[in-house]
Design a protein that fits this description.
The protein is α/β, with parallel strands linked by helices and about 300 residues long. The protein is built from eight helices and eleven strands. About 35% of the residues lie in helices and about 15% in strands. The strands form two sheets. It has a six-stranded parallel β-sheet, sandwiched between helices. Strands 1-2-3-5-4 form a five-stranded antiparallel β-sheet, with helices on one face.
Length: about 300
């Protein structure tokens, strides 16, 4: 029995019903590039036969390992890794073997999920200038009595290796913030990569955090393969008329055409539209300043 309840993505790739970058084919096994590989040359070796993991069928596992060994022989240094079960970081319940080329100083801890995400989150937290910003992560208590910016936009999926845009936004907010108290930055990403147990917990927190924020900073580097941002479209529709939203729509993102309608709607409602993250941060802080100036004059 496995935890896989949705249609198997690897079976779809093997059948040719889903896109993938194939690097090697055998009669009964396929090797593909994963989305957001953790090092250059990272591949997944996947048997055609659907078995849950390396302990399910010794014959299929041995054959898949044999093919992975061919790829390992092409590298001076590499890891060969497979997982069984959620506690061992398995997320797709179709046997697959990672072949991960390594180089000295690449800084990749193993297994890379969740340890890599936790290490990255800690490094990001350590780098946050505590005297300038207070970063509040998903499902943490939302403080009151301070200026606040919510970072809205597409979020990378856990473990897919795609870089988040939010650390750069936090650094830029910290660099530009001149308030007497630290700026509260509300991010829907999770501290240490720990995911919500229930969908409602995450959505409820995000709704409360966006309502709390003086400015809702939308940065949408649209990439249909890695950062589709479909939920972001809905959230922007909810926030566009609040007077607290700013929209960053970079023209050099992979799919800028998917931002055109949001830009149109933003203009209709008088929402500032920016091309760069720096300008979007500037516009968000201008909203924060305007909000508190208005409050001071009431």
């Amino acid at each position: 029995m496995t935890n896989q309840t949705a249609p198997c993505p690897f079976c779809a790739i093997v059948a040719g019903d889903a896109p993938a970058t194939v690097v090697r084919r055998w009669d009964d096994v396929i090797a593909i590039r994963p989305r957001g590989g953790v090092t250059d040359g990272h591949v997944l070796v996947i048997p055609h036969t659907h078995v849950a993991d390396a302990g399910a069928d010794r014959t299929v596992s041995a054959r898949t390992m044999e093919c992975a060994s061919e790829l390992m022989a092409e590298h001076l240094d590499a890891n060969m890794i497979t997982s069984k079960g959620a506690a061992a970081t398995q997320s797709v319940y179709h046997l697959h073997i990672h072949v991960v080329p390594r180089s000295s100083g690449d800084g990749l801890p193993l297994p890379w999920t969740p340890q890599q995400e936790a290490a990255k989150a800690k490094a990001e937290q350590d780098a946050e200038p505590a005297d300038k910003v207070n970063v509040v992560y998903a499902r943490e208590d939302i403080p009151t009595g301070t200026s606040a910016v919510f970072l809205a936009g597409p979020t990378p999926r856990a473990g897919d290796g795609v870089e988040s845009w939010r650390p750069a936004a936090i650094a830029e907010l910290a660099a530009r913030w001149t308030g007497d108290k630290p700026l509260t930055v509300l991010t829907p990403e999770s501290r240490g990569g720990k995911r919500a147990k229930h969908y409602d917990d995450q959505v409820g927190w995000e709704t409360a955090a966006r309502r709390r924020a003086d400015a809702i900073l939308y940065w949408i580097p649209r990439d249909l393969k890695t950062l589709p941002g479909f939920t972001t479209n809905v959230e922007f529709g909810l926030d566009v008329s609040t007077g607290r939203a700013v929209l960053g729509a970079p023209p050099d993102c992979p799919n800028p055409e998917r931002n055109r309608y949001l830009v149109y709607v933003a203009h209709r409602y008088g929402v500032p539209v920016c091309d760069s993250l720096d300008d979007t941060v500037t516009a968000a802080l201008a909203l924060v300043a305007r909000t508190h100036t208005t409050e001071d004059t009431l």
